[in-house]
Specification:
By secondary structure, this protein is of the alpha+beta class. It has one domain. The chain is built from 2 helices and 3 strands, in the order αββαβ. The chain has a 3-stranded antiparallel sheet, covered by helices on one side. Strand 1 and strand 2 form a beta hairpin. The radius of gyration is 21 Å and the shape is elongated. 7% of the residues are buried.
Length: 76
């Protein structure tokens, strides 16, 4: 009986570690252009949290060197 319980627990732990942690994430961005601020949300589907965070943080990179536009994004 003990072997069955131990084997069952190991099987459950193993199965849960094999499942994907991918889901749809939201990236909230705030953009300022010539004194006007707007907010937007970008959907990032089927990604792990670490990958979604990288995508979200890089969403503002095209505007890094612009003096007219500033953009900051945060994963939610």
């Amino acid at each position: 009986m003990k072997k069955t319980i131990i084997f069952g627990a190991i099987a459950l732990l193993g199965a849960s570690s094999l499942t994907s942690c991918k889901k749809t994430w939201s990236c909230e961005c705030t953009t300022s252009l010539l004194g006007t601020t707007t907010s937007s949300t970008i959907s990032i589907p089927d990604q792990r949290k670490s990958d979604a965070k990288t995508i979200c943080e890089n969403a503002d990179s095209p505007y890094d060197n612009s003096s007219d536009i500033s953009m900051s994004c945060e994963l939610k």
